[in-house]
Amino acid sequence: MLTHLGDKWTILVILLLAQTPGNRLRFSGIKRGVAGISQRMLTLTLRMLERNGLVVRHYFAEVPPRVEYELSLMGKGMLPPLEFFAQWIGENWPAMEAARREYDARSGQ
Amino acid sequence: MLTHLGDKWTILVILLLAQTPGNRLRFSGIKRGVAGISQRMLTLTLRMLERNGLVVRHYFAEVPPRVEYELSLMGKGMLPPLEFFAQWIGENWPAMEAARREYDARSGQ
């Protein structure tokens, strides 16, 4: 479980829904909003989020059927630790990049 | 990068080193302390942590050579957001488990 929660796509989908009015979007809207995510990865990510109660799937029996994904109350509760984590990464990104350059130079990569 | 940082093994290795006096251990000590991690996964995780400056690798040219891995200052700086994230997971674990049971029952798994 911990493996998925810290996963890049999971974090980006949750942050996107959190920043969207009403915290809900259709599949295509989420795909457009998360750069680089594949159809398959988004399907798996949304299924994992729904299964863990972090996202609610709304199905409208229209023609064609409409599906929307909404950040649940528990999903919203995950935002503070996620934002704290994302903030730490943002602040330390330059130092980590410098460490990577030094490591690669040392190991001749 | 974000993908690795939130990875279960990365989090468990950092938390183990953080709880160890001197924040440093040998490879075998880390492997014993992180249940279920394979030799290969620990090697990859430690290399990623070292490459990103979160862990420092100390090499002692003894016979046989000795290697210790130490949580760096930046690595220690990651603890507050990690602990906050781990705390959130701990608090919400029962609700997520209940959601999973309900989802699995609904989808006949």
TrEMBL record, chains A, B:
Q: Which InterPro entries match?
A: HTH_HxlR
Positions of the HTH hxlR-type domain = 1-97
What does the UniProt keyword field contain?
DNA-binding, Transcription, Transcription regulation
Which domain of life does the UniProt lineage start with? Bacteria
Q: Where are the bilayer-spanning segments?
A: none
The protein's name is Helix-turn-helix transcriptional regulator
- Give the originating organism: Stakelama flava
